[in-house]
Amino acid sequence: MDSGNGSEDGTPWGRGDGQGDDDDINRDWGHKDIPNDVEVLKRVWRNEKSAPEILAYESLLVERVQEQIANMEENILAAAESLDDMMLSIFEMDVNRLMFLLRAYLRVRLSKIDKFALHIMRTADLWDRLSPQEQEYASKFVDVLSKHMHDSVLGKLEKAYESMMKQAASSEENDMIVEPNLDTYVFCRSKTALGTFQLDDKGDETVDMMPNDLYILRYRPVRNLIETDRIELV
User: Fold this and answer.
1) Rounded to whole angstroms, how far apart are CA atoms 117 and 128?
2) Is 175 in the same domain as 189?
3) 123 and 81 in one domain?
4) Residue 147 lies in domain
5) 165 and which of 11, 45, 174, 213 could share a cystine (Cβ 3.0–4.6 Å)?
6) Where's the DNA replication complex GINS protein SLD5 C-terminal domain (predicted)?
7) How far apart are alpha carbons 32 and 68 in whole angstroms?
8) pTM value?
């Protein structure tokens, strides 16, 4: 009886001679959408790495990639004895590639949380961009940082200088909180024809954005184009 997991001779794809087409292999190994997801994950990672602020967490993509990795690892273990070394290496490379990209994406986000934790926690829009796990991490990070700063430095200063937020009690703003520079310049590529795009409030600075063309622009004016997937950072 066909178990639905391979051919009659036990191989994990459609044809027993090992020459099944790519669709058969991808379907039976549970990673038919992997090529597309790899490209999406690459783009998401590049955007996150190049943007000065933390971007929205791609929860559905991360969940899908994690599920694909788990399925592929399970299938490799189940079929290890029936695979030749070349095929086994190919599938393991696919797994490693996905794991590398996913870890790189998550590490970039964690580095931004470490750097801008206080700013993120005080800004509702940025806080909502974090995953539940990232929110928990950020809260614990700030608690540990606050205790460390108080025990090692702030607790030994006069009361007017004990705040982590302000240089002194007389400061009108929270001038000790590190914020990302949204006016930094970024390399970006337009994914569609956007026509004449305004880069300042007065309309004195504009750019004609054409598909696949590269631009060096300030991040602040184009941040909405990244959020709506009309341009990508490179």
Assistant:
1) 13
2) no
3) yes
4) 31-180
5) 174
6) 180-234
7) 9
8) 0.78
